[in-house]
Amino acid sequence: LTNANYTASSAKGTLTIAKGTASITLAGLSAAYDGTAKSASATTNPAGLSGISITYDGSSAAPTAAGSYIVVASLTNANYTASSATGTLTIAKGGQIISFPAFATVKADASAFEPGATVDTGLPLTYVSNNTAVAEVYQDPSASSQWKIRIIGEGVTTITASQQGNANYESASLSRTLTVEPVTLPVSLVSYQAKMEGNRVQLSWTTSSEKDNAYFEIERSLDGVSFQRLTTLKATGNFNAVQNYSVYDLNPANGANYYRLVQYDINGEKEVLGDRVVNVSIVSPVSVQAFPNPTVEEINLSFTGITAKDAQVTITDLSGRKMHQETIRLTAGKTAYRLGLSNKLAAGQYIINVVGEGLRSAIKLVVLD
């Protein structure tokens, strides 16, 4: 005390200012997974107090994966106290977006192709067809198990691309319609026949319509496996009426002769229309055989019942191309003759035609390397 008339001893005491009471409010407790950390937020009343800390299931690190997390917000402040705020942060699974281009219409003879769908998450897709009589989907083991669509027949099917999802992503699927049209054949074949006519084989066939047809080819084989071109015949091209064709094999071999009819269109594409076999038996009073057969180089002919004086010998390949020709003078008491080929025949199949007075024979010959 400082006073002109009084004195007093000083009085002492303690002023206590207690911390104020604040409150904490949590927000941002829902999010969707996108691969980044998701944090809750907290505000105080009074506003703007410092010292807020937030934990997620006891960790200060904000979570990334989809799921539910217990959130606790606490206040550490020199002037305020507050009860911790508790809530649940829910991170929902993320969605997936599948991109699946529409299919173009395909023909029933189309080659296998990839479906072409993708998903923005990069997770693996699976496919299913709801009509496997039209198309089926499979994983190609020769192409790192890449999904492909194999066409089975004409019609309509739905191809569905699916991603089954995982802990962080929801499943997703998207469907596209695939239409498969029938193949329009360039030639509608009505019939194809092969038959003996005297000592030759007649090959005839009939079509009911033709589109962009360039030509036909007859191939011949003596074993039903290796075929060579015998002849070609120009087609009518585009025709919507019955058309008849006929060609001859003038030099069939004794035994089975196989004839294949092949069609070529104007783009060079071909289609085998059918195979026929004719068993040829040309009877001659003279029996002729070739030996050795198969052969590597040397070719001999043996005759039984010789009546002719001369024999014309012609060797052709299966396409009818002449490879060798000579005349053999047949003499009494001699039955075997060696052919005088100037060049060795390449490995393959050939026909030896032997013709003379009262003599006609066609012999299959196989030449080895």
Brief description of this entry?
The chain has 369 residues and is mainly β.
3D structure, described in words:
By secondary structure, the chain is an all-beta fold. It contains no helices and 30 strands.
Question: What is the topological layout?
Answer:
Layout: E1 20-21, E2 23-27, E3 30-32, E4 41-45, E5 52-56, E6 67-75, E7 80-81, E8 85-92, E9 98-99, E10 106-107, E11 118-119, E12 126-129, E13 135-140, E14 146-151, E15 155-163, E16 172-181, E17 187-197, E18 200-210, E19 213-221, E20 228-234, E21 243-249, E22 255-265, E23 270-280, E24 287-291, E25 300-304, E26 310-317, E27 322-329, E28 336-338, E29 348-356, E30 359-367
Parallel strand pairs: 1-7, 3-8, 10-16
Antiparallel strand pairs: 2-4, 5-6, 6-8, 9-11, 12-15, 13-14, 15-16, 17-18, 18-21, 19-20, 19-22, 22-23, 24-25, 25-28, 26-27, 26-29, 29-30
